[in-house]
Amino acid sequence: MKKIIVSLVVLLTLSFGNTIDEAKAYYEKKDYVSAFNIFEKLASNNDMVAQNFLGIMYRNGYGVQKDIQKAVELFKKSADQGYANAQYNLGIMYRNGEGVQKDDKKAVEWYKKAADQGSQGAKTMLSLLHLKGEVEKEKKAARDYLDEESPFDLGMMYLNEKDYKRAAYWF
Q1: How far apart are CA 20 and CA 63, in angstroms?
Q2: Nearest to 76 by CA among 92, 87, 60, 85
């Protein structure tokens, strides 16, 4: 019975084509052409992870002609499905004005969505924006986005506030 189930799983995997893990493996090996082909097929079926990876590939020109507009489009499709990495990437695009009109408010909106799902990068960006005074919130809001997974950022925040005892704790 066990052999039959394993055989069915293998058969189903082969019949449905490549997986996201295979595409990621090619990507990590910098075989961007193979990765692109798999990501593209998966993205056409609304795979949000594949859409995000394709966005990264288009943004950086990995295995494809660099196309910032296409990158934004793919990040948006993935972000709208709730994928935190794409929400963070879309925030970066708005923050830098890449492929979209520079818009710090939209950047913060996307960073918040990603941070609410645990994106450490988004939490750090929000905290830095709060500390720089670029986002109109009190400094406590910056701390709310940081946690023990980012001790350096917490230490820097307390150091900027001249709270040396707390800064030393986090360093």
Answers
A1: 17
A2: 87
For 38-55, how does the pLDDT look when each residue is reduced to its tens digit (9 = 90+)? Answer: 999 999 999 999 999 999
How many residues can be counted in the chain? 171
Q: Is the dihedral of CA 93, 95, 96, 100 positive or negative?
A: positive
Evaluate if pTM is beyond 0.90.
Answer: no
Q: Is 23 helix (H, G, I), strand (E, B) or coil?
A: helix
| CB-based contact 112:126 (threshold 8 Å) | yes
Q: From CA 78, how far away is CA 34, in angstroms rounded?
A: 21
Determine the pLDDT at residue 13: 43
Residue found by looking up tokens 């004005």 in the block: 97
Helix (H), strand (E), coil (C) string for 57-99: HHHHCCCCCCCHHHHHHHHHHHHHCCCHHHHHHHHHHHHHCCC
Read off the tokens for 1.
Answer: 């019975």
